[in-house]
Amino acid sequence: MTPQDASRRARDICGMAPIVPVLVVEDASKARPLAEALIAGGLPALEVTLRTPAALEVIAHMAQVKGGVVGAGTLVTPDDVRAAKEAGATFGVSPGATDDLIDACEALELPLLAGAATASEAMRLLARGYDMLKFFPAEASGGAPALKAIGGPLPQISFCPTGGVSPANAQSYLALPNVLCAGGSWVAPADLVAQNDWAAIESLAKAASALGQ
């Protein structure tokens, strides 16, 4: 997969909804109903972070849910890429980017949303052919004003800001011309997942899917 193809696919995924749920799931038995609730609420692109022992099993279950596109987040090493691909992930998300990680994603044809927090990092990825990136950690890196400033000299790069994005500030990001979507964890709070309150999660997803309109 070429960088251009990877970025094109990442753009398509980021264009599916204004918010990509960033999911930390401890219990694989919650995977299917959680995915169904989020998709029913209008958020079909799901990022399952590789931060729990259950993450790969969660990806495998969510990948079977109709209407969803499931990716693996927190990709750091080539081994992460291989495991995510084998589990059924159809895209990857990383907090940053290394040549080894990018090479692995290209070799395994896993579209990558690579992370960048500075103009230099974004320019380096652009030089490799990637023009759809993750801006992380968004709030800690200056928030929407910083991303707006980066967009001035680098208008050809689009971003999905993640990290500290909430219902209170999401609109400020989504209003920027260089933002296609944002990543957020608030649509699947741990307490609602633990209570199996899928109706409440679907309601949160519906509200999030209406952002940016």
From TrEMBL:
One of its GO terms (molecular function) is 2-dehydro-3-deoxy-phosphogluconate aldolase activity. It catalyses: 2-dehydro-3-deoxy-6-phospho-D-gluconate = D-glyceraldehyde 3-phosphate + pyruvate. Transmembrane segments: none annotated. Pfam families: Aldolase (PF01081). It comes from the Bacteria. It is an enzyme of class 4 (lyase). Its EC number is 4.1.2.14. Keywords: Carbohydrate metabolism, Lyase, Schiff base. Pathway: Carbohydrate acid metabolism; 2-dehydro-3-deoxy-D-gluconate degradation; D-glyceraldehyde 3-phosphate and pyruvate from 2-dehydro-3-deoxy-D-gluconate: step 2/2. Homotrimer. Belongs to the KHG/KDPG aldolase family. This is 2-dehydro-3-deoxy-phosphogluconate aldolase.
